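Summary for the funding panel

The consortium committed to producing paired sequence-structure records for every protein in the target list. Below we show the first two records in order, beginning with the earlier of the two.
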Amino acid sequence: MRFLIFLLVFGWGIGPVHSDPLGDVQDRLVHRHGGADREYYLYEPEGLTSGAPLVIALHGLGGRAERLRYGTHLNALADQHGFAVAYPQGAEVRPTTSYWNAAPEPVGSDDVGFLTSLVSVLEHRRGYDPAQTYVVGISNGGVMAYDMACRAPMVFEAIAVIAGTMSGADWQHCDPSRATPVLHVHGTEDELIPWEGETHWLGPGDATPAIPEVVQFWAARNGADTVQVDRDLPGAVRFRYGSTRQDDLVWFLQMDGFGHDLPNLTNAGFRAVDVAWEFFRLRP
């Protein structure tokens, strides 16, 4: 039953495999980590130059990286703003279900290690700017983004979490060596990752916090002591947390009545990934 909690379907499909990271970047690539071949897709706009930003996009439970690249509008944003997008594939927990091991489970893929290694390879071999490397995580991918901020905070300069949360383990033990700017987008009627949190996450005693508590944790971690509220996005209230030294340390988009979904122009009147890129570009 727990495998259903992050389900966000972007489809399946197959494609050619090339060695990491050579070959046509529009095709499926392979990065070897921990003795296993891990797949990902890489999108580079034509004419992208060295020192460009990199965005890592993480699918939800059961999702497929190759379909995520068509379901988020990130490629079009990359064309418009000049950045690369990598879509890694989560490990298979069963033959038809992929996931990110963000709890983490004692037995399972080392996804912190995999993402850290993949980002390093892409930055060094393709020349992306480490100071402009970001992650967008959807559902289970959002849980993984928080896990990276907790356990490998030097990898990403900022994270965007859409319909995700912190795992019970991260909520209890997260103590990163540095702060990470956070954008969190969540619907108050999310039926799979409830607004009010859960008392049973992966088992008895593994509780997750309410979504506003997660946001407050990162606001405090980032040293935010001010908050501004605006309603410039349809169907959302945006809380912008900052401090006297820096604005926009944490953004929280509260979507009243919205469920477990990726906000886009059809279901919400705005694209969450557009807001994510806007947030990323505010980094000093």
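The next record, for a separate protein in the list, is shown here:
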Amino acid sequence: MLAVTADDHSSTGPVAVLANPTAGRGRHRGLLPALLERLATAGRPVELLTAGTPAEAEAACHAAVADGAGALIAVGGDGTVHRALQAVAGTAVPFGPVPAGTGNDFAADSGFPADPLDAVEMIAAALREGRTRPVDLARMTGAAGGDRWYGAVLAAGFDAIVNERANRMRWPRGPRRYDLAILIELARLRPRRYTLRLDGEVHELDAVLVAVGNGASYGGGMRICPDADPTDGLLDVVVGGRFDRRTLMRVKPRIYQGTHVTHPLVRSYRARTVELAAEGITTYADGERSLDLPVRITAVPGAVRLLR
């Protein structure tokens, strides 16, 4: 991964910080003053962004970048990172993810320490030295147009369907809602017909699991696309075929180690551009509700400059 020096990015604007106090069920909430204090050791003004909803958080990041922020830092999990990436993708504004959520896959796969204080130390050192490292992002375009970016994984199969079910449920609260959604969707499990176009080559297939990875992991360490490299300019596509319930439940635990890709019903592909279509699927990118299929996904080399 190539390091970029201060000559390539000389902005001296303030360091904007987006912090999600509810990330990781609030377990790092008390750390924020210490994180901001360590960030200030870089010798740059630090501005904490205010937002009450995810949409407001994304808007605040866009506004900070438009107003001349010299860097953007996201304190939270993959959802917080996802909102911030929309503002810095394709710009020269450097970015630092501070892992403080239940899922910190983008930060982990990009080489940041798991401890938030250690991650901030790395970011502050990079700011002092004017050092950034370019990393790829995935750019999505839906049928209605308009781009969205993600850094980790796009889920477009069983996991996305479970997320969609859980988000529609009003009871129970907390993690049990997701567990119940899994049981409901397992009972309804059936392969879906997908059309997959990889750099123009068409594949028609029936599948239960479909993931398009810029990085390797989603869901807090599940290595769904274990060979994905966010610096190779390519997307990894992993497809789990006609699983029945029993087979799916046997294969799912193997995703944490990435060994599921050796199962005979799992296929892996690699491409610069992925077009994915199926009926009635809403995708989830970086764990966040995203675009309905069909979508076109393109690997964009060096789309974000990381402070590390």
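Regarding this second record: Residues 207 and 239 are 7 Å apart (CA to CA). The first strand starts at residue 15 and ends at 19.
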